Amino acid sequence: MKTESLPARLEAVTAALDAHGQSQLLEGLDHDNEAMVEGFVNQVESIDLDEIAALIATSGAATTSDGDQTIEPAQVVARHPEGEEGFREAGEALIREGGVAAFTVAGGQGTRLGWNGPKGTYPATPITGKPLFRVFAEQLSAIDDRYGVVTPWYLMTSPLNDADTRSFFLDNNWFGRDPESILMFPQGVMPAVDDDGRLMLAAPGVLAVNPDGHGGSLRALHRSGALEHARSRGVKHLSYFQVDNPTVRTIDPVFLGLHVGHPDSSAEMSSKMVPKADPAEKVGVFCRIDGRTEVIEYSDLPAELAEATDAEGRIRFNAGSIAIHVLGVDFIERLTSGATETGLPFHRARKKVPYWNPATGETVAPSEPNATKFEMFVFDALHFAQAGLVQETDRVEEFAPIKNAEGTDSAVSSSALQTERAARWMERAGAAIPRSSDGAVEGRIEIAAATALEARDLAGHTLPAMTAGQDLVL
Fold first, then answer.
1. What pairing do the DSSP bridges indicate for beta strands 100-105 and 153-157?
2. Which residues of 51-71 are buried (b: 16+ CB within 10 A; e: fewer)?
3. Pair (330, 384) in one structural domain
4. In angstroms, rounded to a whole number, what is the distance separating the alpha carbons of residues 38 and 136?
5. How far is the C-alpha of 241 from the C-alpha of 248, rounded, in Å?
6. For the chain, what percentages of helix, strand and coil (3-state, to nearest 5) are there?
7. Residues 201-254 pLDDT 10s
8. DSSP labels for 424-439?
9. CA 418 – CA 390 distance, rounded (Å)
10. Could you give phi then psi for residue 456, rounded to 5 degrees?
11. Same structural domain for residues 40 and 75?
12. Closest by alpha carbon to 138, among 184, 172, 166?
């Protein structure tokens, strides 16, 4: 809580803006409007002006590679690695001792899906339409029941959807979970900068800002007190995933065991990948850069590497990033405390940023990019890990994102993948599933987390017969 008076805080903010050559932000501020002044002061106080000045002073975007670096395909651990059961047991032991928490990046809105609200409230399952937040909550509850724990769950919201997300959890009685085990905190923001290095106003007394990227989730964990909360509960590792993927394994024992026990892992940061569908697929690619595991964005990977194939015609750089990671709490602390807090680089993007023009008193909607936005990418943390493990997984099993209103990565494509996964699980358990001539399931299937978290959980169960065109919920 701020102890200084509002006039004193405004005076300090004014001096700081003057010192950084950003006093134009004071234009239009109504000093008689206490609510406006307080909002403005709060916003400026939340921004690291020294950090912004350093970013403005440096030219060029953050890059992941240069011509002097050796770039090779990443070393990948198989989906079913040698010694899988041993890694499973190690992961299960970690879960039982309360050493793992879930971490969901949930700052997005459902706007692109035509949905009015946080993306996590979007109805995602094929038949019952469970919202994404419920899908994850039910997984965590099933894990808790299986291992006799209460798994902490950290959710990074955004300033835009934080209140709505909290209300949704409250309205749904926290999905049956202990509210004390759930900690929400908003993502940080960064101000937009015009071509003259000046911060911009969205309205009088309101800075034009944007989220600081999924990489900002790490310092949001630190600044919110979530890391301290995790340590107080004995949590050593966080299972990281994004809110738009209903088939993600929120807590995966085998992956955890690989993270803490495989010789290719330093137990700092591990990741999952799926083979790229084609060279042009818009996903980051895991690579080895000078012997270290890193991710190169699809737009930064040279075409000759993206299109390179091996002797059998397979894509060489095919390890597509799907934003599923496990990160050690100590590792996150090292990246986000003290002088190393800005260890993750900021990436720059030229964008069209609406702004308020104090000369005319009007809001301008530019037709061309007019400003630079800054954001961090969580996969850049791999650069700081001594040994980052990458495990292959199956797209049907763990990657059915809902990002677009139609086409690829839409609710329709996700529903089909969820049904296909459920069908494979049932077939593995001996059930007959009606399929069309092209192999598609004739009907829809939905399996609740309380019934099965993975295919092996259905072994030995008597499963219902399915007829063509049927909706089947287990």
1. parallel
2. ebeebbeeeeebebbeeeeeb
3. yes
4. 37
5. 7
6. 35, 20, 45
7. 999 999 999 999 899 999 999 999 999 999 999 999 999 999 999 999 999 999
8. HHHHHTT----B-TTS
9. 24
10. -65, -20
11. no
12. 172
